[in-house]
Amino acid sequence: MATTPAGRAERARTQQRSTGTEKLARRTAPGSAGAALAGYLRTQSAELLALDSAVRRDEPDSVHRMRVCCRRLRSALTAGQRLLHAGRVGALAEELRWLGQVLGTARDAEATGERLAAGCAALPAAADPQRLAELVAARFRRRYAEAYRQVGEVLDGERYLGLLDEVARLADRPPLRGRARRGRAELERLLRGEQRRTDRRMRAALAQPVGPARDEALHAARKAAKRARFTAELAGPGAAGLARRMRALQEALGGYQDAITAEHLLPVLAAQAQSEGEPAFGYGVLFAAQRPTAAAALADAAPAWRRARRRGLTRLG
Fold first, then answer.
1. pLDDT per position as a tens digit, 128-181
2. Per-residue b or e along 107-133, where b marks 16 or more CB atoms closer than 10 Å to that residue's CB
3. Which residues pair with 84 in a beta bridge?
4. CA 150 to chain centre
5. Residue 74 and residue 96 in contact, taking contact as beta carbons nearer than 8 Å
6. Which of 190, 178, 187 shows the shortest CA–CA distance to 27?
7. 12-39 as b/e, with b when 16 or more CB fall inside 10 Å?
8. pTM of the model
9. Helices 33-56 and 212-235, interaxial angle, to 10°?
């Protein structure tokens, strides 16, 4: 009996699935770069799904953790683009960026409020530090509540649910290229690329004169250090030293960024306080403290950068 067109089509699809499964198995063989990337994607996919309910319940630090998970996933897709069919993951990387930005509005309100309220403890008595800390905390709680409401709306939307579906599919069958079969040398190549990228951005930032352009360049260097750190996590325990040093650099640059952001924000907060009949003197004292804080953080970044750029850190095993 002749095979029907429908039967031939189904047989072709079965063969295609079988071939795809065999290719994926070869590209995720133990010790391969593909195995490291696929494992990292599975871990972060599971974390994102687990955090969904935590964020919906507004559990402490859940928004921050989901934001970091988005960044880890996106870093894996961008830093690991040599191992992936880019056309199949580019849209997902942009969707992860979008979700991270939504979460970031809430997280920034939370973190900035905590930082400024804590900073009030060092103010002189004339600034009434306890009262100012209470006012600052209340103001940023309101900001967080509004941003969190928007997060809730996003988590109930079709765009977010579609993103979760895509992340789950990615973790189940990552679109790995043939070079993902390669082993340690390929991972080391990825690590060197991220280390050099961070180094270039730091050099470019510090070559800028003091001002907004340098602040933006240092922020870009911080993001590069963060991506390098996540790539080192992806590579496994052998890259733990690079991950630690990139994290130290990221945190030092983060301290600088936080102080600069607060310096721009505090005059706005002072004007709002005055318009609402609140004392504004303490905001001015907080403002004056930001530039020295930023300078100290940048001074910490210099040795952190030197330690993070050492060549031996990208060798595995």
1. 999 999 999 999 999 999 999 999 999 999 999 999 999 999 999 999 999 999
2. bbbbbbbebbbebbeebeeebbbeebb
3. 176
4. 20
5. yes
6. 178
7. eeeeeeeeeeeebeebbeeebbbbbbbe
8. 0.89
9. 110
